[in-house]
Amino acid sequence: MTGIPTGPLREVGSYAMGEDVRVDDLHVQFGETEVLHGVSLEISAGSTLVLVGESGSGKSTLALAATRLLEPGLAQTSGRVHVGEVEMLGLTGATLRRARSRVIAYLAQDASVALNPLMRVGPQIAEAYRVRERLGWRAARVRALEGLADVGMRDPRRTYRQYPHQLSGGMRQRVMIAIALALRPSLLVADEPTTALDVTVQKEILDLVARLQREFGLTVLWITHDFAVVAEIADDVAVMRDGRVVESGPVHRIFDHPEHEYTQSLLNSFTASRTATTKSERARVLTGAIAVAPASEPATPTVLEEDA
Amino acid sequence: MALRIGRRFLFGAITVFGVILLTFVLQFVVPGDPARSIAGPRASPEVLEEIRQQLGLDQPLLVQLGNYLGAVFTGNLGYSYSFDQPVSQVIFERLPATVWLALLAFAIELAIGAVWGSWEAMRGRRSALLTTVNVGLLSMPTFALGFLLLLLFGYVLQWAPIEGGTVWANVILPALTLGLLGAPYYAAAVRDGMITSLGSPYLRTAVSKGLTRPVIVRRHMVRNVTAPIITLAGMDIALFLSGVVFVEQIFAWPGLGQLQVVAFQNVDRPLLTGTVIIAAIAVVLFGVLTDGARALIDPRVRTGE
Question: Residue B105 and residue B5: Cα distance in Å, rounded?
Fold first, then answer.
């Protein structure tokens, strides 16, 4: 484990430890179509809940709703999302902005488009310190360089000056992690951040998040369709289908005694694909694994809320 | 980067050279006898022969080409029969008027387009009124809008002068005409750019950082919307600089466009080729400038060699 830089600057930010997270009866509706039908989840402080489900099951909508990144004009949201004492869905204006990335941070699916292509990587981390901690560029840069070192960049000064397209996919996702954790949030919501990466890089990213989770005492909600990821990092698992959580519990219980038949079929296709050796077996597994995807969710433009 | 700009300049120079060659060829395609158009219909054969000798028209073609290229590259674009002045002098007297018109027209179309486009993007849906205005402007011929503005502001309201002139008040209506006609294109570019930017994952990242709205707009939207507009602006300014015939004619604004009309009417070959060469230089120059500006804004263009 590489040591994180310590020093006076390290202490400036709020050093929030992970908090208990409770999602209560979360409904999300796009126009007439309800996408989440009352989802409830609990994550204990510092642990990892992995939310599994096929595409279209509403996992990403849940991530965006919890992080308050859904467009209010397009989506109606009801329910409660508690992170410690903070209830996210009730926040507005400046309070909401303060809560973003300090209470909940969001790690997007595809880092190749989640970074501004026209901006150097470093300032994209540093601007969070500029705005949220009112630091000057020099101090913000120092913090950003620390962040880049934390996510395992060998030469943070060089990376700081690079543009996103000059980095590999894994490096870009590391930068995204540095951005997400810049303000030491209590909860990290990761929306399939390793899907676009190849398997070895995926493993590196999972290990990195696990390490940072221990160091910062982070609570993690990790969204994926991949049981390999579940096996790797989960403390608890929730299985989602058609906007509902059909089963949840500790990871070993879900793996050993899945109760819901949908969980069983997901697990079967996973273990089968692991053990399938011949082409025809793999093909059979794949056809079995393809579920009928419900109509895709509408694209959701970003909210720019008014300043208080 | 320097290499890239250097290469663009080299290709630009080759293009201009090609245009100069073409203008030489065109002089033989244009109907009529140059000597005749100088001396008039009643000149005697002896006079015509003398003029041909003066112009070097009796020389072999290659010698003529050599003389022509030599003259052009030393800045001598020939002698205008209709103005009785060197072509370069005629052009450079008119150039400031065209530059002023081009810059003002560009400023107007950019200002209107930016406000219009960003308003529509932020609003989230199109307004019926603006869509009507948009279709109206897009289908309006230049001269129709020009006369309309002239009638309204010049005759009815009497805010702007009707008669042509060279003071600043005279440039407002022609610039407004060009600006209004160009504005829909800028509005569309700004609106599309902003909608793309608003829907992009990087903007979601910016919001999730807890940045304030002005910071998000300034740091993450303006530059990303500027890139496509630069291309549009480069082509537009080049076009304006190469002479705006209709508008200059309607408002009697003494720029290069009017010069082209005079040159055509009088079959003034040197003047015509002169304005064509100036236009070619403007187009090529702004092509290079556009390229450079885009590279400054977008790092992917820089390394995209």
Answer: 28
